[in-house]
Amino acid sequence: MKTEATEQAAARRRQVVETAMAEGLLAGDNSPLGARIPRRLITRAKERSGITSTTDLVEYALAKVALEDDFGAKLVSRKGSIPADIKLGV
After folding, report:
1. Are 60 and 13 in contact, with CB atoms under 8 Å apart?
2. Which of 39, 47, 57, 50 lies closest to 9, judged by CA?
């Protein structure tokens, strides 16, 4: 049974993969990747993401990092840039 949360998570995963495809990040030759990752980390990531394939999980995680924006850093850097006495929509 799919819940609203799992459907939203699936939609977010699709969006990441579709954006990565549109930017050409998933095209071209594949590169072998070897890494030692704690099993508990992989298991938790699969549970949270709903992804069952380790290859798909790694591809999704790398796509998220590659597409990540810097909104948070930009927002924090603006701290103090608005005068304290300005009226903001009351």
Report:
1. yes
2. 50
